[in-house]
Amino acid sequence: MKVTRAVAGTAIAAALLLTLNPTSAVAAADTGLRDAAKHTGVRIGTAVDMAAFNADTTYRDAINREFNSVVAENVMKWGEIEKERGVLNFAAADQLVDSARANGQQVRGHTLLWHNQLPGWLTAGVTSGEIDAAELRQILKRHVFEVAGHFRGRIVAWDVVNEIIDDNAQLRDTIFLRLLGPGYIADMFRWAHQADPKAKLYLNDYNVEGINAKSTAYYDLVKQLKADRVPVHGFGIQGHLGVQYPFPNNVLDNVRRFEKLGLDTAFTEVDVRMPMPPDATKLQAQAYAYSALLQACLLAQRCVSFTVWGFTDKYSWVPGVFNGQGAANLLDENFIPKLAYDAVKTTFTLGGR
Ligand code: XIL
User: Fold this and answer.
1) pLDDT classification of 31: cutoffs 50, 70, 90
2) Which of 40, 100, 112, 188 matches a 20 to 30 Å C-alpha distance to 158?
3) How far is the CA of 72 from the centre of ligand 1 (A)?
């Protein structure tokens, strides 16, 4: 107010006021989500499709304008890095990590172990019996040291194990569980910690937003790992939702119970799909869901980041996987912000710690 009164009266002073008045300065520059998020201490992230990144400058510019954290949508997965046994290809992943550093973004690592997108030689070798349990354990250990070791010091958090509990809340039946037994989980964390001692090490899964049998199975697993002094540091909640399903129960309580075990938390793959075509009601429900997940993150104590699984409907994984569904992201296929974008931005603006 003092400034306003002092400079009132001349055109020059009025122009000066525009540059000095913090409110009009923020309103004048459309600053993107990362600026809205900054004061909260919660990082806003996106998964990055490296094919789009290299082909589409609108896409690339938006990543750097909107996000201060990135994760590879595919290029850090085992099947992408080691298509041929013993031949490692880090080119695309390195490109992302280098770009992140140049643009002031943190990098989440996704993922050291998943039952999908494994190298063909690995699954074929296990199926044929050519790779036995002892060899699988050696291969897995080497994989962790090679990949986490390659990026050592450049990854803030690794999804060490991804989707290891199934929809019946049991340890997922994978080649790893079958051949190595449940001890592979602790092994993964111990190896990852040796390979990159500063990275925060996460479990990550879907359908664990609220309190339910699956998230409780994770809760019990983490308790056991902690009791066994396994270096586990974070719980990643993917956040793949759909407007046609009820919003998950007690998300904030769920986040808090993991924090009480001494973990950081993160929303790691948020998108909110809908049966096509979109309409105003679905878009509003979508905005609500994005905002409600983000509110839980902001209201919790140790939720460090909120990552969306892609930000434009132009490159979403949803239509290819969920028949008849789509429009899951914050921007439409022409990069026009949807209601959900504004909701996320406002929630960050209002929220704090
Ligand atoms: C998806 C990618 O988005 C697709 O491009 C790919 O074809 C399959 O994987 N949970 C995860 C992610 O942890 O790695 C998945 O990403 C989406 C579900």
Assistant:
1) confident
2) 40
3) 10
